[in-house]
Structure formats: structure tokens, C-alpha cells
């Protein structure tokens, strides 16, 4: 007897419709879960990115050390030009399949002790262990008790530290080094969690590029001031010239616009320009550098043929070019999900402000 597949229990179907993004990319993986899949090198790259974008007020420079001879430094944040000889913080990156244990990092304590004792660098102001699964209970307790941490490091020195600091020599805890350990400030040691890093990183312009999940909500744009600002003078001058071509009269100031249709058009164009300016600011804070400039280039490339065609006058040219911008199909740029028709009109005027487009025939 042939079995019928229809009699086999089917898995339950999704309760909501599948989106195009889900079909293309699969389910969204939370950032903390995604970090667990990173290689150690990718993890260091993420921590470097976090320090660079999230701590700009804290550091003058952020530098990644990698390879042999890094002296126990992974990511360093320098507060002044003296770098390793000045005020700096170390972010020691660990990517294991478990929360960090004391046995995982005894040698790291030893390295910062030895290399600062040897004069290779000044002792860091802060020293953070950074691991996607964080510090385990035993290590967290030691990090919270500087005296106990010193005591345990000394007890573990011969077994876990002495022969692991360098590949060329053993580092016994002799009397002078022991005196340095006794005086060393063990309160500099702490740990950062992946949750802390992700929460900070969420506010950076590179977060969505790394983790996906869509752009944040875009705030409302500013309304144009009553008087034309210096930042918009170039495209406004061109617009007034275009209106002059249309009416056959010289228009040197918006107050000289007597035709209601043109007055309303001018108001809409200024609103569109400020809308596009708000998109520029939003892009600066929400997407990687160059994304907004790429959108300008896309729109410029899409309207330039219309721009260069013959038009009865400058006003007709403006109308034709902005319509071409609104009608364009743009699918690749990350900002396209949060743009509107006004943005496209405004971008045309941003291009005119840069003299990449001209509204008058001459």
C-alpha cells in the first residue's frame, strides 16, 4: 500500500505573511547572537569599531595591535599624543565558547605587569576584558576585589604566568618585580559585556551596516526660516533666475515674486531643500560615511539627461528635473527606505547649491 504524504502531520505555518526581506535574508539575528559567530579576528575588528565610533570624546586615537609582539595589547585608546607613554586604556579581546575564567587570563595580567614594569609602556589607566559571553562568576568576583586579584595572581604566577609572557624568556617573580606587583593598582582591571558594546554601537552610523535590522525612525525636518539662509543662497539665486526667465522680468528677491504659482513653487522648493538637509544629517548619524553622497550621485546620474535637454525656460527645467528625480527607481542605497518625494526635490537643489545642476538656461 502506498503511503499518502497528505496524511503526515504538517508543521504549523507562519502566523504572519513573509516579507521580501525575510525571503532574501532569512530571519534577523540579534546582534549579541551574531557576535557569538564571529572569529577572534572579527571580534577584535568589532571592538575597534566600537571604540572608534562610541568613545570619540574619550580618546584622541584608537589603535588596534595584532600579531606577535603585541605586548598584551589588543585595542588601545589613547587620551593624548604620548600614546603608550601617556594616558591610555586597553581593551583585551577574548572570543571563547564560554564566559571568561581566571585561568583564561592569568597571563594577560602578567603581561601588563611585566611590560609596564620593563618600561615598554605606562600602565594603562583602565584595562578591560571584552568577550561576547562576558566574564564568568569567578573572574567577576576577582575583578571586583583588587586585593584578592593581586593575591591570586601571585599564587598562580609560577604555574600560569612565568613561562607564558614572552616566547624568549621566563619571567620569575623576583623581589623587585614582586615589589612592583605589590604596588600595582589592580583596580584598573574590569570587564565589558557584549550588551554594553551593542547598546553603545546602536547609536553609531555603522550599526545597521554590521547588524541589519533596519534604520531608526527619522526625525521630522526643520521648517525653512522666513529669511533665506546663507547655506541656501546659491540654489535660491538660481531659482529666482529661473522664475525671471519664465516671467520675462528680473527677479532679485523672493519678495518680488508676484505670480501666486511661482510663490507657492518657491515655498515648496525651500521646504524640500530643508527636508533633504534633514536627510543629510540623519544619514551622518545612521549610515556609513558616503551613503548620502552616493544617493546624490545616483539622483544626479538619473536627472542629468533631463537637465541637459532643451526647455522653454528655467522654471520649466526645474519642474522637469525634479519630476525626473521623483520618478527614478533607486533600490540599492540604504537611505531609500526612509526617503520621500520631497527629499528628491531637495536633493536636486542641493546639487544646484554645489553647481552640479543649473536652473537657468545661460
Q: Within the largest sheet, what's the order of strands?
A: 1-2-3-4-5
As a percent range, the share of strand residues is: 5-15%
Gyration radius (Cα, Å) is: 30 Å
Distance between the termini: 86 Å
Domain ABC-three component systems C-terminal: 232-359
Protein name: ABC-three component systems C-terminal domain-containing protein
Pfam families: CTD6 (PF20282)
Organism: Xenophilus arseniciresistens
Structural notes for this entry:
The protein has 362 residues and is an alpha/beta fold. 48% of the residues lie in helices and 6% in strands. The protein has a 5-stranded mixed beta sheet with strand order 1-2-3-4-5. The longest helix is centred in the C-terminal third of the chain and has 27 residues, at 260-286. The chain starts with 19 loop residues before the first helix and ends in a 9-residue tail after the last helix. Residues 232-359 form the ABC-three component systems C-terminal domain.
SSE layout:
Elements: H1 20-25, H2 31-36, H3 40-54, E1 61-64, E2 75-78, E3 88-93, H4 102-117, E4 126-130, H5 137-143, H6 146-161, H7 175-183, E5 189-192, H8 194-201, H9 207-211, H10 233-247, H11 260-286, H12 291-308, H13 314-327, H14 341-353
Parallel strand pairs: 3-4, 4-5
Antiparallel strand pairs: 1-2, 2-3
Helix pairs in contact: 3-8, 4-6, 10-13, 10-14, 11-14, 12-13, 13-14
Organism: Xenophilus arseniciresistens
InterPro entries: ABC-3C_CTD6
Pfam families: CTD6
Amino acid at each position: 500500500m502506498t503511503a499518502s504524504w497528505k496524511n503526515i502531520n504538517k508543521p504549523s505555518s507562519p502566523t504572519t505573511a513573509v516579507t521580501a526581506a525575510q525571503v532574501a535574508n532569512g530571519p534577523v539575528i540579534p546582534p549579541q547572537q551574531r557576535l557569538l559567530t564571529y572569529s577572534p579576528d572579527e571580534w577584535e575588528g568589532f571592538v575597534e569599531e566600537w571604540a572608534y565610533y562610541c568613545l570619540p570624546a574619550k580618546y584622541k586615537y584608537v589603535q588596534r595591535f595584532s600579531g606577535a609582539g603585541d605586548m598584551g595589547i589588543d585595542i588601545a585608546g589613547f587620551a593624548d599624543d604620548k600614546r603608550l607613554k601617556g594616558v591610555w586604556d586597553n581593551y583585551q579581546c577574548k572570543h571563547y565558547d564560554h564566559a571568561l575564567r581566571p585561568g583564561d587570563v592569568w597571563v594577560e595580567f602578567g603581561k601588563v605587569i611585566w611590560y609596564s614594569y620593563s618600561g615598554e609602556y605606562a600602565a594603562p589607566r583602565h584595562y578591560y576584558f571584552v568577550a561576547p559571553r562576558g566574564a564568568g562568576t569567578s573572574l567577576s568576583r576577582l575583578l571586583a576585589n583588587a586585593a584578592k586579584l593581586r593575591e591570586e595572581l601571585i599564587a598562580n604566577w609560577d604555574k600560569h604566568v612565568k613561562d607564558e609572557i614572552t616566547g624568549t624568556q621566563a619571567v620569575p617573580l623576583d623581589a623587585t618585580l614582586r615589589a612592583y606587583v605589590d604596588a600595582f593598582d589592580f583596580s584598573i582591571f574590569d570587564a565589558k559585556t557584549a550588551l554594553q558594546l551593542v547598546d553603545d554601537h546602536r547609536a553609531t552610523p555603522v550599526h545597521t551596516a554590521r547588524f541589519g535590522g533596519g534604520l531608526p525612525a527619522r526625525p521630522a525636518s526643520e521648517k525653512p526660516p522666513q529669511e533665506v539662509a546663507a547655506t541656501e543662497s546659491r540654489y535660491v539665486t538660481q531659482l529666482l533666475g529661473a522664475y525671471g526667465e519664465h516671467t520675462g522680468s528680473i527677479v532679485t528677491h523672493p519678495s518680488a515674486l508676484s505670480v501666486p504659482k511661482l510663490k507657492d513653487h518657491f515655498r515648496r522648493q525651500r521646504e524640500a531643500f530643508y527636508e533633504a538637509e534633514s536627510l543629510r544629517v540623519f544619514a551622518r548619524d545612521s549610515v556609513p560615511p558616503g551613503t548620502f553622497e552616493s544617493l546624490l550621485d545616483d539622483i544626479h546620474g538619473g536627472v542629468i539627461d533631463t537637465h541637459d535637454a532643451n526647455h522653454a525656460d528655467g522654471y520649466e527645467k526645474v519642474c522637469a528635473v525634479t519630476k525626473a528625480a521623483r520618478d527614478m527607481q533607486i533600490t540599492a542605497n540604504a537611505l531609500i527606505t526612509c526617503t520621500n518625494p520631497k527629499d528628491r526635490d531637495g536633493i536636486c537643489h542641493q546639487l544646484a547649491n554645489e553647481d552640479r545642476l543649473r536652473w537657468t538656461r545661460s
